[in-house]
Every structure is written in structure tokens, then in C-alpha cells.
Amino acid sequence: MVFHSFDFIFGFLPVMLLVYFLSRKSRTLSSIVLLIGSYTFYGYETPSLLIFIIISSTVDYFVAPRIEACSVPKKKKRLLILSLVVNLSMLCILKYTGWLVYETNMLLSYLGFSNHLLPAVDLPLPPGISFYTFQTISYSVDVYRGVTKPTKNLVNFFNYVSFFPQLVAGPIERANRLLPQIEKAKRTVTTADLEYGFILILWGLCLKVVFADNFGHLVDITVHNAWAGFHIISVFAFCFQIFCDFSAYTNIARGVARLFGIKLQRNFFMPYFATSPRDFWKRWHISLSEWIRDYIYIPLGGNRGSKPVMLINLLLTMFLGGLWHGAGLNFIVWGLYQGLLLVFYHILPIDKWLQKYMGIVGKTVSIIIMFHLTLIGWIFFMDYPLVVDHDYLSGSFWPLFTGTWSSIQMGLIPLFERYYELVMHPTIVIEKWPYEFDIYFYALILLITPIVLSELYAFIRNKEFHETIISSNIFVKVPFCLALIYAIIFFGKRIGYDFIYFAF
Length: 504
Hints:
mainly alpha, 2 domains, 73% helix
């Protein structure tokens, strides 16, 4: 079930809220209702996929108390390893087996062993498995570290792992933040909660169906055109599509959770106004960035060793972060690219120099530079043939060795050249571009402008955009909500796209 479907908006959510409201005087009954609702939401189309989240939840529910009670360090560590092995095994087998078999077969073919290929493997990938796996792993690790006390209530713990608003695409919540809210005897929902939730849901739906899906359509109709100018549109459209799409999910998730009296953490904070890679990861997918920092980067050694060791830790952490996003060369290259950016800015802190010597102008230049570096990264992340040799980005790993340079020459370099010409000599380029390019170019500008303005307004106020609306008076809130409703009705893409991060 998806947030922007009629089934969810006019069926599941109203019924769920009504039943939950009627049962909320009993803590036990309301928790059971919440769990049944979460499992119904997740298994709506494919109930069999529930088995994996139930296995993960069951293992950690029983292992965590034993970890806390154990006084023998080696045995305690073995119990933690058991939790990690079960969770990571399910994640890796379901997510990477098919890809690894494919890559092995490509290598065998590349080496001339075409008669010894492995049978293809096509395993179902449960939506959100990467998110709930990370969430339950953090629980076991925090119990091991003594940061969190294990819960004795099975239903509450299963609710923590499967809480339906954030189950499929986050934010990735920690046990010490979400569990106490789930365990609360009586969650009171105030009128402020209802107002906050409604505006956040409405803004999220608008970001999804009006902006993200229309950006996605723009990507689809321009990405296959041979002229590099169209690829400029594709890259910019994808850049804003993935932001609007993912932040839309987070907004709706936080809004729905608020209707049940539960506060989920912020996951985005004007990421395209970041001044450096480090600043970007404090603003983009914040819950994942913090998870990777606390459970991968710091255990690897973090910045405790020498500077070269710290930079290697950064690179390895971002490589694993890229691999987490999916089985494919494009995600690995994207992760390494992000790691290299972090390393580069640690060695040469361009943003600090610019802001030190140029003040606000330097900060603006830092933002522009970082935005374009992020834009280049999304080229690797996209699963589209932006270069002539599609294998370079999203196909097999092995042709990379022979096709990389030709791909860059024939695909990426013309793309950057065309963009440079457009920025430096817009009049000349506009006179030369194909007639049909006008439509797509102006459509891109039309879609980007409201997003940039809303983010800029939020950036100046140092608040999320919806927070600036909620803190306004009724003469701002009512017209704003009406405008969103009309935008969704008249400009929403009728044939929508799934949320991009459902695949992860």
C-alpha cells in the first residue's frame, strides 16, 4: 500500500484512525490494533513478505534481553553476532544474490567460460527491508552498548520494528526515541498534532504527485534523446525528483505518525543549500547518515587514528552506504564518489576558505559548487542510459574496465560541455536548440521554481518549510492548504510512480 493511493487516503487511514481512537483507552488493545494495522499496510499486496519482518523482530526480541543479562563479554558478543548474522543474512541474500550471480556469469562470459554459467536467481525483495533491518540492528547494538534497555513487551517491540508510517522508507528510528512513545500508557492527540499532521501530509502529497511524479515524467521523455541538451534536463529533473519524492514520503510518514500521537525525527533539512559534503549529509536522509556514522564509521575507528586512516574510514563507510542503496555498479560508484568528495573537502576545505575571505558571497558560492557536485553524483545514481555505453552506469561491472573512458567521452563530457555553454552563453545556445526542447526546458523551470523558492524561504528562516506555514496565522494556513488541494487535483500526475526509495 502506498501513501498517495486512494486505498490508503480514503480507506486504510480513516479506518485505522477510527479503530485506534476507539481502542486507545486500553494500552494493550491499542498496541494490538496498531500492530495489526502495520502488518495490514505492509502485507496488503503480498502477505508472504511479512515472514521476513516477523523473523527479524522475533530474533531481536529474544536476543536483546539475553545480551543485557549476560555478564560474560565473549558470550555477550556472540549473542550480538547472532542478531547481526540473522538480519544481515536475510538482507544480503534477498537483495544481492541475484546481482552477484549475474555479475559472476558476466565474468565467466568475459573470460570465455560461457558453458559454465550459473542459473539465474530472482528472489523477491521485501519493500523497506534495508530500513527495518537497520532499525532492529540498532536496537540490538544499543542494548549491547548499554544505551537502551530491552523491552519486555513483545507487541510493543514488534510495533517499533513495523510502525507503518515509517516502515517502508524511514526515517530510521532509534529504540530510545521511538519505543518510549509506543510504550506510553495513553498517547494523547491534541488539536495541534492534528493540524501539524494534516498540513505535513498535504505538503507531502503535493511534493509527490505534483512535483516528484512530473519530474519523473520529464526524466522519462528526455533521457533517451541523443542530444546532450536533453540530458541536462534529465539530470536536473532527476535531482529534484529524488528530493521531492523522498522528502514527500518522510513528510507524509511524519504527518501520519503525528495523527497517532507519535513524533518521528526530521529526515531532510534543505539539503541543496549545503555548503560542503559533510553539511549535505547533515541535511539529506539524516536518519541514515546518523546510523552510518554511529554503527559503521565510528566502529571502524572514525577519526580516532591518523588522518590517512580517518580518510580511508570515510571512503569505506560511503562505499558501504552506496552498496546499501542497491545491488548495482551505479550505487557503488555513487557511494565512492560521495566518499571521495568527503575526503577532498577534508584535505581542501573550500567552503571554509570561501566563507572566511568572502563572507556571505563565499557561502553562496559554496552552495552553488556543492549543488553541482551533488548533481554530478546523481548522474551515477540514476538507472538511466545517460551515456552511450549503458553498462558503465547500471549494467554489469566487468565492461567498466574497457568502456569507461569511451563512455565519458561520448556521454558525460558532451553533457557538461552543453551545460557550460547554456550557463555562459544562454542566448546562443537557445537559438540553436531543437524546437521541442523549448517545451521541456520551460516545464523544468516551471517545476523547479516553486521548490527552490519554498526551500530558500525555509533556509532563510532556518526551519522546514511546513514549519513556517504551521507557525503562521490562519489567513496563511487556510489559503495554503486550499492551494495544495487544488494543485493536487489539477496538476497531480494521474499515472504516478512508486516512491524511489521503496526499492531499497
